[in-house]
Amino acid sequence: MRIFGQGMRKALAFGTALLCLEGNTGLALAQANASQSGGQQEQGKTPKAVMQTAIIYGAVVSAKDQAPLKGVPILLKNTQTGEVIVKESDPQGAYIFNHLPEGTYQILVGGGGFSLQKKEGILKAGMVGEMNFRVAVLSTGNSSLLGSIY
Questions:
Q1: CA separation, residue 23 to residues 30, 78, 110, 134 (Å)
Q2: Residue 83's pLDDT is what?
């Protein structure tokens, strides 16, 4: 059953990215800006800490029917520092990595019961990048082998 269309999933993932960014940094950044500006935050200005990081978000769907896939392993590696972050896609197939420093990244999606895909890219400060993946669900059935050894 498909609840959201492709456009709705993208809007939901982007909205989630913005909410996560605001929810995780809003208070700390407001306090930092207030202390730097004599107790008052400047209106209409993007906090400097937000501009110095990047966000990658997207969705993981089935290659067969484009249904969202929950629980798909997602590994993000900064190839310059070697730092690795591991997550899984949520029930809508969405994922988000925020507060990422500039750098070159590899993102590896799948493994276990899913086909594996890898993408690479460069993130600059202030970027919001979307990377969607279509993976195949691999067989998880049982098998048996019968025979004789002589």
A1: 12, 24, 28, 29
A2: 97
pLDDT per residue as tens digits for the range 102-123: 999 999 999 989 999 999 999 9
Interior CA angle at 98 toward 4 and 15, to 5°? 30
Domain coordinates in residue numbering, the chain:
6-135
6-135, which class in CATH? mainly beta
- pTM for the complete prediction? 0.62
**∠ Cα 134 136 140 (to 5°):** 150
What size, in residues, is the chain?
A: 150
What's the pLDDT tens digit per position in 42-94? 566 655 555 689 999 999 999 999 999 999 999 999 999 999 999 999 999 99
Instruction: Return the pLDDT at 70.
Output: 96
The owner of tokens 């089935």 is 62
Determine how β-strand 114-123 pairs with β-strand 103-111: antiparallel
**What's the rounded Cα separation, in Å, for the pair 150 and 16?**
61
Q: Could you tell me the CA-to-CA distances from 81 to 3, 96, 147 in Å, in that order?
A: 39, 20, 51
- How far is CA 100 from each of CA 26, 30, 47, 148, rounded to the nearest angstrom? 16, 20, 15, 56
